[in-house]
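Box 3.1 A note on notation
Throughout this textbook, protein chains are presented in two layers. The first layer is the amino acid sequence; the second is a token string describing backbone geometry. Keep the layers aligned when reading.
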Amino acid sequence: MALEVKNLSISFPHLRVINNFTYQFNQNGLYLFVATNGSGKTSIFRSILGLIHSKNNGITIDDKPMAQMRRSVFYYESSNWFDINMSGMDYLKLIKTQWKSNVKINAVIHFWKMENYVNKSIRKYSLGMKQKLLIALYLISDADYLIMDEINNGLDEDSRKKLLKKLNELSQHKCIIISSHYKDEVYPYADKILTIKDHEVINDNH
């Protein structure tokens, strides 16, 4: 089983972003995207999920179109996507139901020590609380492919270490595709490093 991207090209009016990106993400391992802001990593993530238009010859999982395998992937771009009138518990229950997950909500809440605020509306959350909820959604989904865009933003150092330890554990049987401003912290855990430079995605040996 693999997530395969073939000849992915992304452009906007008067702006070229990515040229002919072809790559196979295996079912397990941690893939780190290294790129400067505005170079196209988020556009690649959005294109894989069909959130923006792109030119490609197909994005597939196990040779099946992404549209048929949507629940095999989880991507929640930013805590800015949250409806602040909902609670963290609302979101955890929603994702557990939609992804038909067997992961226990209470276990994830305990892992991130969210007990004191998970039932409060998100409008009352700090940035760190929102980010822990965001990560919790990935854990609850239990999806085979987890695409994470700057997932450790807003976390203190201890929480980032805890996250990386968890991602390293998950990468033994899941595919983790991640970008991070704290790339030096992620490097030791990365199985593959993909660098975006001059509209091209370069596969760095690692």
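The chain has six helices and ten strands. The chain has a mean pLDDT of 92.
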